[in-house]
Amino acid sequence: MSDDTPAVPLDFRRLSPDDMVRTAREHHAEMERRRTVRQFSEEPIPLEAVRECIAAASAAPSGAHRQPWTFVLVTEPNLKRQIREGAEAEERAFYGGRAGAEWLKDLEPFGTDANKPFLETCPALIVVFAQAKGPDGEKHYYVPESVGIACGFLLTALHRAGLATLTHTPSPMRFLREILGRPKHERPFLVIPVGFPADGCEVPAITRKPLDRVLVER
């Protein structure tokens, strides 16, 4: 840190080793419960909770602290309908030939297709945009990495707040910038439907890779 950079004391809460392990295990168990949901209730959700989750996402680290993200919270029914129409147009092309046979085969267990009703039935959409540069042309660094970390923060916060989510990435996503009136220096990154699960909601019976498949210690 340079001598002319203002600094403040670090606000850090140190735990005992036992509390560290307990807290980590509790968080792991809670995140194991998080599942992608495609069947949403139309029941309203507390938008202030969603705003707080977006604020938490904005606390994520970013390259040179540029914070190269914009979160657009969409609740207006007409906008949700337009987003669904735009997404389904791209998805029809995807399922109709743009995706390879292997990709489509890998998707079969999840029962997905070009129809995306959840984009309208969920009470809110969060459309995340990555800023290639600042509004005044200032350079941004590690944009995909920074925005990806912020989205991880956001999904975790929404789950801990008691909300169900889905990560949706129709490709290409240029239509989102047009519908939502975002500037050219912003690129659509991710669509996150948010709400409560529909009554009787079911999710695929999947398992996750065990720790020894994803962790290497040297």
Structure notes:
This protein is of the alpha+beta class. The chain has a single domain (39-197), classed as NADH Oxidase, CATH 3.40.109. 41% of the residues lie in helices and 12% in strands. It is built from eight helices and four strands, in the order ααβαααβαβαβα. The chain has helices spanning 17-33, 47-57, 77-98, 101-107, 118-121, 143-160, 174-180, 211-214; strands at residues 69-74, 124-131, 164-165, 186-195. The protein starts with 16 loop residues before the first helix and ends with a helix. The mean pLDDT is 95.
Distance between the termini: 31 Å
How large is the count of helical segments? 8
Q: Could you name the CATH homologous superfamily?
A: NADH Oxidase
* Whole-number count of domains: 1
What's the arrangement of strands in the largest beta sheet? 1-2-4-3
Q: What structural category do the secondary elements indicate?
A: alpha+beta
Q: CATH topology, anyone?
A: NADH Oxidase
Strand content: 5-15%
How many E strands? 4
Helix content: 40-55%
Main sheet record: 4 strands, antiparallel
How would the global form be characterised?
Answer: globular
Pick out the low-confidence regions. none
Q: Mind telling me which CATH architecture this is?
A: 3-Layer(aba) Sandwich
Mean pLDDT: 95
Helix and strand string, N-terminal first? HHEHHHEHEHEH
Can you identify the CATH class?
A: Alpha Beta
What value does the Rg take, in angstroms?
Answer: 19 Å
